[in-house]
Specification:
By secondary structure, the protein is an alpha+beta fold. The chain has 17 helices and 13 strands. The chain has two domains: 26-221 and 570-603; 240-561, no CATH class.
């Protein structure tokens, strides 16, 4: 049986997470200390108990060349069209010494067992140049610039300096010089083999080098570098396909101006970091500007197929939102309902605003994730076909379990949702009363993504009071909510309002912290979320006042999206890349060692 796109996507995530070793480079002072310790340990293995040679080796063969390489690598890489920061150069020199340490220990162990068979320290020092060059070449190719020729000199700095220091202490013979050259050649060839093999899955699938995207990715995540962003988005744009999108807009006017706007484009907030339509809430708020008041961007029924590949495509969506807001001059009828559920166990709750029904969908306490666009569109069309009101569907996206909770077209859960949504719309119509509507908004921003999992738009609250009852919507700029937390947060909010719902924006900007989902509640405790949410809801209640409700919808034709299956293809390719790299780094290292050993026994 063929796997679904969701299954492939989830499997791709798992492959990446299994192959991904998350670490943060140590601070330069700590790395420098490790360099000195590793250099001292290597010098001990080479020359103990000759303390004079040991000291010379520490400063001229190991720690000295490593620290000098730290100073030289960044400017050399820059001069050759790359970029390699000081802290990364320090980390690279440290790892090279740590890589050499066990090789030297094994070599010296064998030399104690078979002293007449194992060559001495001059050959060992040259032997270590191969692994050092191998590791530096593949690292600089990936992180600095994807060019073996241009990264050759920066990669050679540390091993060449180490060899020069070694040969200054112990002059080599001609065969030892030839063997040293052979070790460097083998290291280079093994690095090339590793890079080419690891790059093959993405190159095969997307006709582009995945390794060449590492540096732009670092620059985009680390500093939102414009050139890096353009390079990454051009990769996505090449695979873009046209799609007809739509945006629905609620504008709440007070005192003759728009006080708050709820923007609901059929756009998924991905793919990652701030690329394309990721960070959608912040980008739309900026594009709508002060004229829109407080902007809220809940998640609409759509999945990764409707990720936008570039900021330019999102600009078209932002322009459509501005155009729509400008023409929303006529208020809807002063009629509204509370936020109601048609029956226990319904996946949908609804609230009538004027003559439009807002339907909010959550499967909580079961897993809740993306609703396929086709399912949301079917709800809108079927209710209209049956003579019902205009409806807008929102995905609460508030109960995360990895790989679960998607609502796909044609599935039993989708059929239940369609029935529940229709019943919720009818219940909202039946509960509606004529009379003024009051709204209030508030926001708490300034959260740190790394420590909370909350994006730039923070926590926003919208309260809508109609017919003596108040509904409160808490919108958190995050990628889903850890399963089980919704109930406690809603309970806290319903001590302030008659009915409440907590929603997340599904903003993929939070992924850049560690490359994982970073669901809300993994880093920030539920009690803190409930406390902050209650504070924002109180502020929104205090802000409540009479308002006109305006609504409009606008089609946005032929917008480029990543399209069906793209995310599954990308995740599968990334998973294959991680798997290939894991296997090839071992294979290329073993080939490097065995080939170098052949050289040892042939030339020495």
């Amino acid at each position: 049986m063929a796997a679904s796109a969701a299954e492939v996507s989830a499997d791709g995530h798992r492959q990446i997470r299994r192959g991904h070793v998350l670490f943060q480079a140590p601070k330069p002072p700590l790395a420098a200390g490790v360099i000195l310790l590793a250099g001292f340990a290597l010098a001990l293995l080479f020359w103990f108990p000759d303390w004079t040679r040991l000291t010379e080796g520490l400063f001229f063969v190991f720690a000295g060349p490593a620290l000098l390489a730290v100073a030289l690598t960044p400017p050399l890489a820059s001069a050759l069209g790359g970029r390699f920061e000081f802290h990364r150069a320090m980390f690279l020199s440290m790892i090279v010494l740590l890589l050499e340490l066990p090789i030297a220990a094994i070599w010296r162990g064998f030399s104690l067992l078979w002293p007449t068979l194992v060559p001495g320290v001059v050959v060992l020092g040259a032997f270590l140049a191969g692994p050092a060059f191998w590791f530096r070449q593949m690292s600089l190719y990936g992180v600095s610039r994807a060019s073996h020729a241009r990264m050759l000199l920066p990669a050679l700095v540390q091993p060449i300096l180490a060899l020069a220091g070694l040969y200054a202490i112990v002059p080599p013979t001609l065969p030892e010089l030839v063997s040293a050259a052979a070790f460097l050649v083998i290291g280079f060839l093994c690095a090339v083999m590793l890079i080419r093999a690891s790059d093959r899955p993405i190159r095969r699938e997307f006709q582009s080098s995945g390794v060449a995207l590492i540096r732009p990715l670092l620059d985009h995540v680390g500093g939102r570098d414009a050139q890096a962003t353009a390079a990454l988005e051009s990769f996505f744009v090449r695979s873009g396909v046209p799609a007809d999108l739509r945006v629905d807009l609620f504008a709440f006017a007070r005192g003759g101006r728009t006080y708050a706007t709820v923007a609901l484009p059929t756009v998924h907030p991905g793919p990652f970091a701030a690329l394309g339509s990721s960070d959608l809430p912040r980008k739309l708020a900026e594009q709508l500007g002060p004229a829109a008041g407080t902007v809220l961007v809940p998640h609409t029924p759509c999945d990764h197929d409707l990720n936008l590949p570039s900021s330019a495509e999102l600009g078209r969506v932002g322009a459509a939102c501005r155009e729509l807001l400008e023409v929303l001059a006529v208020p809807m009828p002063a009629r509204a309902s509370p936020l109601v559920s048609p029956y226990p166990g319904s996946l949908a709750r609804a609230q009538l605003l004027g003559d439009v029904v807002l339907i909010v969908v959550s499967q909580a306490p079961a897993p809740t994730d993306d609703i396929a666009y086709s399912v949301g569109d079917r709800i809108v069309r079927e209710i209209a076909h049956e003579g019902g009101p205009r409806v807008v569907v929102v995905d609460a996206h508030n109960s995360y379990v990895e790989g679960q909770g998607d609502i796909l077209y044609g599935t039993p859960i989708a059929e239940k949702l369609v029935l529940d949504a229709k019943a919720a719309a009818r219940a909202a119509m039946a509960a509606a009363v004529d009379g003024p509507v009051e709204i209030g908004v508030a926001a708490h921003r300034g959260y740190d993504i790394r420590s909370t999992g909350i994006g730039p738009e923070g926590i926003e609250a919208l309260v809508i009071r109609a017919g003596g009852r108040t509904a409160g919507y808490l919108l958190i700029d995050a990628n889903n909510l850890v399963i089980g937390l919704r109930a406690s947060i809603v309970a806290a909010l319903e001590r302030l309002v008659d009915s409440a719902e907590v929603l997340t924006t599904d903003n993929h900007v939070v992924h850049e912290v560690d490359g994982t989902i970073n669901a809300l509640g993994e880093r920030y405790p539920a009690a803190s979320i409930a406390r902050d949410g209650s504070d924002v809801m109180r502020a929104a209640l205090a802000d409540a006042g009479p308002a006109e409700v305006r609504y409009g919808s606008k089609a946005i034709p032929a917008v480029k999206v990543l399209g069906p299956g793209y995310t599954a293809r990308l995740l599968t390719s990334l998973g294959d890349t991680m798997s290939m790299f894991t296997h090839m780094i071992i294979a290329s290292f073993l080939l490097l060692i065995t080939s170098s050993l052949v050289v040892v026994f042939v030339l020495t």
